[in-house]
Amino acid sequence: MIPSTNTCNPPKLLLRIASLLALATLLLAQSAFGAAIGVTDNGSTVVVDTHAGLVYTVNKSNGDVTSIKWNGTELNDQSKHSQIGSGLGSATVTWTTSPSGSTVVITIATSTLTHYISSRNGDATMYMATYISAEPSVGELRWITRLQASHFPNAPVNSDLRGNTGAIESSDIFGMSDGTTRSKYYGNQQAKDLTVRGVTGSGVGVFMAYGNRESSSGGPFFRDIQNQTGTDAEVYNYMNSGHNQTEADRVNVLYGPYALIFTSGSTPSVPDFSWMSSLGLQGWVSGRGTVHGTVSGLDAGTSGLVGFANSAAQYWASVSGGSYSCGGMKPGNYTATLYQGELGVATANVSVTSGGNTTLNLSSALSHPTTVWKIGTWDGSPKEFLNGNNISQMHPSDNRNSSWGPKTFTLGDSVGSFPAVQFRGANSPTTIKFNLAANQVANSTLRIGITCAYNNGRPSVTINGHALSNPGASSQPDSRSITIGTYRGNNTTFTYSIPASDLVSGQNTMTISPISGSSDLGTWLSAAFAYDCVELDGVAGGGGGGTTYYKFQNRATGLYIDGMGRTSNGDDCGQWSGSSSFNQQWEIIADGNYVRLKNRATGLFLDGMGRTTDGSNAGQWSDSNSNNQQWLESVSGGYYRYQNRATGLYLDGMGRTTNGSALGQWSDSGSSNQQWSRQAQ
User: Fold this and answer.
1) Which string of b and e fits 208-234 if b means at least 16 CB within 10 Å?
2) d(CA 382, CA 193)
3) CA gap 32, 102 in Å, rounded
4) Of all helices (H) and strands (E), which one includes residue 496?
């Protein structure tokens, strides 16, 4: 007789069956997780089967990876191999597995290099690290994965050479039929931004996870080759090279770990490398330390980053909220550099100990002399200038670039119309036109900042036809730079003394051209430099025994800052269309790194009134020496911005176009409402 059942009280037999099934499932899962990875050694090759779709083969005579199969399909280019460097020629190749058999480590060694490839069962990843005691003979350290391009239609466009019409520079920069350009040098990321990037096709993706860059060279802003797709699809990890690298190579260190990850096409996350600490890799350092601190003195609107470097390692950390913290650092003594953007503005020495957390506070040492005008921002980058954002993406001849010139730039023009690069063979000279008041015809100083140079290019300057003394060449890497996708060299500031006799009241004309003691190789391979900033320092007001007054016109509304004839403390400051009234004339009084603005008609000072809410009115107050009356003046493209020291808000026209409208304040917006032209009276 079949027993009756009760859904609330199942019979013991059914409970036992369910328990056994659950246990079997658990055991199977545990078995798969800890199962042995597949390794086959036939004397000439080592074949690794990850049991996750990835099977690869290593040649035991030289360490090349000769086959990479994904779900049975051969991906590796069969005319070339995937390898460290350009191939080692010969190497000693050994392998071992973990006690559980779930992990394999393949060691590929020469007298000066040891390369590791490791995989785990159930994980479709080739984990790698490379130790060197001397720089490879090819002059660069890289891992290159060479894949069959036909499997990977989706590759980074800037370095996809398929369909090109031939080389346009050397043998590594190519033109396309539509006038654009491609190269392995274009579209690469800065070291600080490297995470995971690769190529994909139908049901497959191959990605490089770059890992930490502590042993690489060049610092946080350095770029190097990541991909090239042509007859094969190449996925790189460049660890050092001669591609305008600004530091010496690091030796007697372990590079990595890094990883080559295989997926069905989706982009993977950065893998956890910490498990590799137990593999006994030469040069692995477990004991690490931290440096943290505060940062001050950076110019308004700029970003901050703190970098650390010595002969064994490099690190960096972004500044957020006026502080930073950099962890995972090898013990040792470092030079710390505070960067404003990409421009080093302070340095200090710091010692890191294992398990320690050192405090290092940094303050910008960038000087702020009295500025007559400034084009650009002191940030170590030409990106705000004409074609500046394109330098890392394409060749200067690419038809997506705007015309390089020669250009004439009149103060007040958009900074985006000033050329990012000065080429002797393409766009020289650049002409700058600017006005000076009578009292500003005085001994002055011109500063031109550059971020890199080619062929010893440096600025030669004339003022109203008078030639200034030419400077010597800056120290730069011996490499192409601007044409291979980088503006990052050694930041250099050239300083020129301008005698008053070279200047005139009214309009002045300056020209800038590159000079060099070397011949040019072509239009674009000519003496050149990339701009960081151009600044004229001198007299802002009060010269010549009298007082110079200025009018401030809003870029967005066209109205002028106006005292409105109001003489009571706390009165709002207004805006009005242009007039000859003294209410629109302001004396600029230097106050340390700040300026104060005093109205000619009312005698009151422009005052932030302690108001911190966006949209608050700017007021006027008699001389109080308060931080509310101090304004940080910054200049870009001929327009000035004023940030209140006490409130942090910027003077803002608020989009108001009616005479008598109140002058406002707003947090940093980048809007033209916060930009003012300054006109000497």
Assistant:
1) bbbbbbbbbbbbbbbbbbbbbbbebbb
2) 19
3) 10
4) strand 492-498
How confident is the model over 308-324, as a mean pLDDT? 97
With vertex at residue 85, the alpha carbon angle to CA 59 and CA 246, rounded to the nearest 5 degrees, is 165
Whole-Å CA distances, 367 to 259, 364, 447 = 44, 9, 12
Nearest-angstrom CA–CA distance, 547 and 410 = 25
CA triple 307-311-312, angle to 5 deg: 85
Report CA torsion sign: 666, 670, 672, 678: positive
Query: Residue 223 has which token pair?
Result: 């770029």
User: With 60 as the cut, is the pLDDT of residue 8 above it?
Assistant: no
* Residue 72 structure tokens: 């049975």
- Both tokens of residue 31? 């078995």
Determine the pLDDT at residue 588.
87
Note the pLDDT tens digit of each residue in 164-200.
999 999 999 999 999 999 999 999 999 999 999 999 9
Helix (H) or strand (E) holding 422: strand 421-423
Q: What is the pLDDT of residues 46-69, one digit of tens each?
A: 999 999 999 999 999 999 999 999
Closest CA to 448 of 375, 386, 527: 375
Cα 345 to Cα 539: distance, rounded to the nearest angstrom: 24
Q: Name the helix (H) or strand (E) containing 679.
A: strand 676-680
How many residues comprise the chain? 681
∠ CA 67-69-74, nearest 5°, is 75
Question: CA 462 from chain center: how many Å?
Answer: 33
C-beta separation of 576 from 560 below 8 A: yes
| Amino acid identity, position 110 | T
